[in-house]
Design goal:
Strand order of the largest sheet: 2-15-17-16
Radius of gyration: 21 Å
Largest sheet: 4 strands, mixed
Strand content: 25-35%
Number of domains: 2
CATH class of the largest domain: Alpha Beta
Shape: globular
Distance between the termini: 22 Å
CATH architecture of the largest domain: Alpha-beta prism
Number of helices: 12
CATH topology of the largest domain: UDP-n-acetylglucosamine1-carboxyvinyl-transferase, Chain
CATH superfamily of the largest domain: Enolpyruvate transferase domain
């Protein structure tokens, strides 16, 4: 059990780790270029190390220091160090690793068995497998009944065999998913023509931005992306990774709900497809300012947060894709807001590392928050109603990093000590989280 003590206020400047989503893509695309690419700063979280270990096993060279990672690769087609086939890869608990990298593996000239840890093996993969198969991919997995929808779906481990050719196509995604979109985009680099992808809402566009940086022909208009095949990618030589907005979000909310507080978070990624939480929090009355803005392949800036009296709001489904990872900590902010907050279109949260709708309901209701799950058409919504002052209790992480960090932030704003059962899961995305939290008390 980890004990969480109340924090009266903060007045500090902090940094959070490099962006996890961008780091995944940086490692993968750097491994497709001939020559060396240096990525800095580099985050050694469990998820990113899963991607790096896969790329190393596929033949990419990697030199890791305390501040950077240098990838040295031979180009678009991998030459695995182990010549025997099939090649066995392990995505650990990283859904991004498995889904995005599958789009690349279907284009290679060897067979791969893509395995996962137990938690990821329970997450459905048909949404990425179906479009890849339409492109000519030979990919299969294990059929099981999806506990959420009741429908049959495909789960890891995946078997990926060499395709005869990769066909261009037009894809209309039913769910806005950056992972599915990215898998199709990577496969499109090897296709026989232009591939187009249309989403119902615009999801985070890190892959589009980075592919352009590496010289790929990518055009985006509204919710449609057109991708051209390439003979090779061109390394930018050095790649700066801004701080992770999803990691910053926990401390943004903390700065808002604590009294007499001011917090500056340095060099945070401010990509508009990623930081939808800022728009929602400002609508709730949050005192947040963006300063020192810098325009690179990904925009970044300093975020200044001050204590605020939050009010309830309604979050519409089209807003969710740009803040999908921040919904748990938005639930925390909503617990301190006046009125009734509704967060619509959250069914996707039930198939993350854990059922995050359930994990937030269990924990927050235990602390006295009025929170419930309601139907919203074919989807779901979370409803949180202000009932006064929450109380400290023992929380459960559900072995989910974002649930654990959200509950620690929540508990820091309470009067009295709380506890949480597990913090090891936080290493999945934010290994420095606990040490950064401890530094705020000094």
């Amino acid at each position: 059990m980890y004990t969480i003590k109340p924090l009266l206020n903060i007045n500090k400047t902090i940094t959070v780790p490099p962006d996890k989503s961008i780091s995944h893509r940086a490692v993968i695309l750097s491994s497709l270029c001939k020559g060396k690419t240096t990525i800095k700063p580099f985050i050694e979280s469990d998820d990113i190390l899963a991607t790096l270990n896969c790329m190393k096993k596929l033949g990419a060279g990697a030199k890791l220091t305390k501040k950077s990672l240098t990838i040295n690769s031979a180009g678009m087609y991998f030459n695995p160090k182990l010549k025997k086939t099939p090649i066995s890869l392990f995505a650990a608990e990283s859904g991004t690793t498995m889904r995005i990298l599958s789009g690349l593996l279907v284009c290679q000239k060897f067979t791969a068995i893509f395995k996962a840890a137990p938690s990821l093996s329970k997450r459905p993969m048909e949404r990425v497998i179906t479009p890849l198969k339409k492109m000519g991919a030979i990919i299969s997995g294990t059929f099981k009944d999806d506990k959420i929808s009741g429908k049959r779906d495909i789960y890891p481990p995946l078997r990926i065999e060499p395709a005869k050719k990769i066909k261009a196509g037009e894809f209309k995604l039913e769910i806005a998913s950056a992972q599915v979109k990215s898998a199709i985009m990577l496969a499109s680099l090897y296709a026989n023509g232009i591939t187009t992808i249309t989403e119902p809402y615009k999801s985070r566009d890190h892959t589009e931005r980075m592919l352009k940086l590496f010289g790929a022909g990518v055009m985006a208009k509204d919710t449609t992306i057109a991708c051209q095949p390439v003979e090779g990618l061109i390394s930018p030589k050095e790649l700066f990774i801004p701080a992770d907005f999803s990691s910053a979000a926990f401390f943004i909310v903390l700065g808002l709900i604590l009294k007499n507080s001011r917090l500056i978070i340095k060099d945070v990624n401010t990509n508009p497809t990623r930081c939808g939480l800022l728009n929602v929090l400002k609508r709730m009355g949050a005192n947040i300012k963006i300063t020192n803005e810098k325009n690179a392949y990904e925009p970044y800036a300093d975020i200044v947060v001050e204590s605020s009296q939050l009010k309830a709001t309604i979050v519409e489904p089209y807003e969710v894709p740009s803040m999908i990872d921040e919904i748990p900590v938005l639930c925390v902010a909503s617990s301190f807001a006046k009125g009734r907050t509704e967060i619509k279109g959250v069914k996707e949260l039930k198939v993350k590392e854990t059922d995050r709708v359930k994990s937030m309901m269990v924990n927050l209701s235990r602390a006295g928050v009025d929170i419930c799950e309601e139907s919203y058409g074919d989807d779901l919504k979370i409803v949180i109603t202000d009932i006064g002052k929450p109380k400290p209790v023992n929380f459960e992480s559900f072995h989910d990093h974002r649930t654990a960090m959200s509950m620690i932030i929540f508990a820091m704003a309470l009067e009295g000590e709380s506890r949480i059962d597990d913090t090891r899961c936080i290493n999945k995305s934010f290994p420095e989280f606990i040490s950064l939290v401890k530094s705020l008390y000094k």
